[in-house]
Specification:
- With 950 residues, the protein is an alpha/beta fold.
- The protein has 35 helices and twelve strands.
- The protein has a five-stranded mixed beta sheet with strand order 2-4-5-7-6.
- A hairpin with a 3-residue loop joins strand 6 (639-645) and strand 7 (649-657).
- Helix 2 (40-47) packs parallel to helix 4 (71-87) and helix 10 (190-204) packs antiparallel against helix 11.
- It is elongated, with a radius of gyration of 43 Å.
């Protein structure tokens, strides 16, 4: 074989394993901590005290596993047998069983796959085979880390720390023990956390680290482990082991009385549980104490008891060596030199044996180094030989080309995999976003329905005047807090919109100085109640009008001032400052008090974060207030910062870009009593029938209380039941009021079904929706709903909408009388004739199709104020008189009123779309001459002030 061939073969041997490693990394799946094995028979096996009985049971279980070719179960049986052997002090057998379990365990059973090698590592350490033990422990640690088994990695690090401690290398052990403690705490694994604390305690008490400070800390940690709150996490074995360790610490800190008491308690538990290893450890510690106290007879007695527990071959060699040494000292003190010589000989023999193991280990390390150096020399000779070969450059070039091709192919495949993973992640994120959107919609519905049932009756009760001051104060409290709850619901919805990128800024002109003063005064009573010195420094020009999203700015200020009120102590100081600086609106709130805990400061703007200050009172809150403040501020192009002075107070300062308004704020002046429902216009009001479709029984009862004094009422629980009721009713209802979110058939499906039916398509429909999202409102409008109300709503608003729709439907049936407004003036100045008195009250699909064509034509002229009957008749190729009569017969409205109704519908859609910011913009877009006139018509038609919707 030529040097070139040798080199190429060597290179491929390196490349191929590397490729396999990469492939396995891509296909490996991270696993969480598996549940402990709960097979009862294995638990029985682990707890057996008789070696023979345990061997018989294990043999039977292994035979069954082999018969069924169930190697994972066989591995679990062997591991349980290893724990049983260790528990009774037979550490040699524990090592053997652990090794056999390691050979059979697979990653599918991650618990056995990790626990078996760790048992082997512990037992090798007990036999002073430290290098081999560390190799086993490090190997399984790397495996756990690569597979993401964080809980199992805790056990591995604890084992490594214990092995380093056993060879008197505590400085190298401590980092592993501390990391195990942190990881156990992060995954809330209390049992592993307790073990990690005990490990740290043992390390700190090692000879090379046993300073007074470290010994005190070690004692504190071990006392913490044995605290009553952790008692249910500890088995009898663990309790005895930790008590023995604590007794050793008491001896080291000269607390002999405490040491003797706790060692005797540990010895009692060890004997009761037949834990031979722990019993020997406790006897060794007691013997050490009595030798130090020169109570040699007692020391010798405990030493002989320790030697008799188990043979040397099955014992921990380090403890056995210490027992021999202490027995030598004890018999010297008694004067029994024969036994002293005997145990001194055993001590020296065992010590020489351990040292011999160390020498073998050192020799093995030297041999490894020698072999490595030898390979380096051979490789160097081969390299020199290759360098003198004439074909080296050609071969090297071929190898480089091949490696480059493989590397390029690997890179391309990696990029494709990354792209696929990113696409999959993007798809998952989109699904999660859709799920969150549905969640917020559902929670909105669930909260807005009871809010309606609170705010509606409260508003009705407040309309009465025969209340005492105390009663009216209670009603005001109900109304105010229900509004606060509605604000919390809206904040939750805002979070969903912000995360989905659907929340937009709707700025409109506002007088900034007076607006800030109004916001400030909203908290004056709360500050007065806590006797807070509440101040406002407002340096904004009173004549300055800015373009600002009032709703979002109000949420920012309310959250900042509300937090200040909450966290300012009694008789504290709050200063609210507003100013214009460097083309920015700066709004700041300063309050006295403790301020923000420095550890909490980096997280205060995180969603749902709650402070960690243990001594702080429970203030409540959702943890979204400051998150909303930051995200709304950034949405408006600004920023927010906090200046914390722990112990004396905190300052929050929000800065938003200043945009001067081109016009002053327009306030529509509409008489609050201008709209009154004309009940006398309805013919036989009590005969009007309304079908109410609502699945929430309390909401249905509330709506029924509003409507029943004026109308007949029939109810249904969902859309499917409503269709069935329509078929059973002797007469067609004058109006249908339906909720949106219902079981079996929702409101949108019901609406679509009604509009497709010739018998029911002409019944006016009002949708009641808690879905405040614009997308759902526009969907209702486009599906063909006559009107809709967003929860919570007022009773007067519902009555107004119902009256408008019933009046229009009655007009279509010829029930109402013509008045002067029902006549229009044609282009030649002559009045049009009256419609036929016996108009067909049932609309055909052809009529609806023609009406849809007419509405499309009217919408074509959206924004123009000069649309007349003549223009429509020309476009439709029909005479003005025929057009007048047909519109009147189908809609019950004159053409002017019909056009006005469509324009009001266009205005409603424009408001819901969020594209317009002022009343003037909406009115002009819908084709009205003046904003004030538009506001008046909007209030009459919808029962709501247009300012409330913008």
């Amino acid at each position: 074989m030529t040097p070139i061939t040798i080199y190429a073969t060597h290179l491929f041997r390196r490349i191929i394993p590397f490729c396999f490693i990469i492939l396995s990394n891509f296909t490996a799946q991270a696993q969480s901590k598996p549940k402990p094995n709960k097979e009862p028979v294995l638990k029985i096996l682990r707890g057996m005290k008789s070696q023979d009985s345990a061997a018989m049971l294990a043999k039977r279980l292994i035979g069954s596993a082999r018969k069924n070719n169930n190697k994972p179960f066989e591995a679990r049986v062997l591991l349980a047998q290893a724990y049983q052997a260790y528990g009774i002090g037979n550490e040699h057998d524990a090592l053997t069983f652990g090794r056999e379990a390691s050979k059979l365990a697979t990653p599918a059973d991650s618990l056995t796959y990790e626990k078996a090698p760790i048992m082997v590592a512990y037992m090798l350490s007990r036999e002073a085979k430290t290098v081999e033990a560390l190799n086993v422990a490090f190997k399984i640690l790397k495996e756990c880390d690569s597979r993401g088994w964080k809980a199992l990695s805790v056990d591995c690090r604890a084992c490594i720390a214990d092995i380093y401690r056993s060879i008197e290398n505590p400085k190298q052990a401590l980092p592993y023990a501390e990391q195990a403690s942190k990881d156990a705490l992060s995954i809330k694994d209390t049992a592993s956390y307790i073990f990690a604390l005990s490990n740290i305690s043992n390390i700190l008490s090692e000879r090379s680290m046993s300073s007074p400070t470290n010994l005190a800390e070690a004692t504190r940690l071990m006392e913490q482990v044995l605290d009553k709150k952790y008692a249910h996490f500890l088995s009898d074995f663990s309790t005895a082991r930790y008590q023995g360790n604590l007794g050793r610490l008491y001896l080291m800190t000269r607390q002999d009385k405490k040491a003797e008491d706790i060692l005797l308690r540990s010895l009692e538990i060890s004997r009761k549980g037949d834990f031979k290893t722990l019993e020997k450890h406790n006897l060794n510690e007691l013997m050490t104490m009595y030798v130090d106290h020169r109570e040699f007879k007692k020391a010798a007695q405990y030493g002989e008891m320790a030697v008799a527990i188990q043979p040397e071959a099955q014992s921990n060699l380090t403890i056995q060596k210490n027992i021999y040494n202490h027995l030598t000292d004890a018999y010297k003190g008694i004067g029994d030199y024969k036994n002293a010589f005997k145990y001194n000989y055993l001590y020296r023999r065992l010590n020489d044996s351990i040292n011999a193991l160390d020498k073998v280990r050192d020799a093995a390390e030297l041999d490894k180094k020698y072999q490595a150096d030898k390979r380096l020399l051979i490789a160097a000779d081969q390299t020199k030989l290759v360098e003198v070969q004439r074909n080296f450059l050609i071969a090297l070039a071929l190898v480089i080309v091949l490696a480059s091709a493989v590397g390029y192919r690997w890179f391309i495949l990696k990029k494709k995999r990354e792209a696929a993973l990113l696409a999959e992640e993007h798809s998952q994120l989109e699904k999660l976003d859709a799920m969150k959107t549905r969640f917020f919609a559902n929670i909105s519905h669930e909260l807005r329905t009871p809010l309606t049932l609170i705010m509606g009756p409260a508003a009705q009760l407040m309309a009465f005047h025969n209340y005492e001051d105390e009663q009216r104060k209670m009603l005001n409290t109900i109304a105010r807090n229900s509004k606060n709850l509605l604000n919390v619901v809206n904040e939750l919805l805002d979070l969903g919109k912000l995360e989905a990128g659907k929340l937009t800024v709707n700025a409109k002109p506002v007088a900034l100085a007076s607006f800030i003063k109004t916001l400030y005064q909203g908290f004056a009573s709360a500050a007065e109640y806590k006797e807070i010195d509440y101040r406002l420094i407002n340096s904004v020009d009173s004549m300055l009008f800015v373009s600002l999203d009032q709703e979002k700015f109000e949420k920012i200020t309310n959250n900042l001032i509300g937090n200040a009120i909450k966290f300012t102590p009694h008789t504290g100081i709050i200063t609210v400052t507003a100013t214009i600086r460097l083309d920015m609106i700066e709004f700041s709130v300063t309050n006295t008090g403790m301020g923000i805990l420095p550890d909490d400061l980096p997280h205060i703007f995180d969603r749902y974060y709650q402070g960690k200050q243990d001594a702080a009172p429970l203030e409540g809150g959702t943890g979204i207030g400051l998150a909303i403040v930051r995200e709304l501020t950034e949405l408006m192009g600004g920023h927010i910062k906090v200046e914390n002075n722990w112990g004396s107070g905190v300052l929050f300062k929000a800065a938003i870009p200043l945009k001067i308004a081109n016009e002053q704020a327009i306030e529509a002046t509409v008489d609050g009593n201008a709209f009154k429902v004309a009940w006398h216009d309805l013919a036989s009001t009590s005969e009007q029938l309304i079908l109410l479709v609502e699945d929430h029984h309390e909401m249905a009862a509330y709506i029924a209380d509003i409507l029943r004094p004026l109308y007949q009422l029939v109810t249904a629980n969902n859309g499917r039941e409503a269709l069935k009721r329509l078929q059973e009713l002797p007469s067609t209802p004058s109006l249908i009021i339906s909720d949106v979110m219902m079981p079996e058939m929702d409101g949108f499906t019901l609406l679509a079904t009604l509009k497709q039916s010739p018998a029911y398509c002409n019944i006016p429909v009002i949708m009641l929706t808690a879905l405040a999202d614009t997308r759902h409102k526009l969907k209702a409008l486009h599906t063909g709903v006559d009107d809709y109300l967003t929860k919570p709503f007022l009773s007067s608003e519902l009555l107004a909408r119902a009256a408008n729709l019933i009046n229009n439907a009655a007009a279509r049936s010829g029930v109402t009388h013509a008045d002067d407004d029902e006549l229009i003036t044609l282009t030649n100045g002559q009045p049009a004739g009256q419609p036929a008195e016996n108009a067909d009250p049932v609309l055909s699909p052809a009529d609806l199709s023609w009406l849809e064509e007419l509405e499309t034509l009217v919408r074509k002229y959206t924004g123009k104020t000069d649309l007349t009957l003549a223009v429509l008749s020309y476009e439709l190729a029909i005479s003005e008189r025929q057009l007048f009569r047909r519109i009147k017969s189908i809609t019950g409205l004159t053409p002017n009123k019909y056009i006005r109704a469509i324009r009001l519908q266009i205005a409603r859609e424009a408001i819901e779309s969020g594209k317009y910011r002022t009343i003037a913009e909406v009115s002009y877009a819908a084709g009205f001459d003046t904003p004030a006139y538009f506001s008046k018509l909007f209030k009459e038609h919808y029962g709501r002030d247009v300012n409330e919707l913008l």
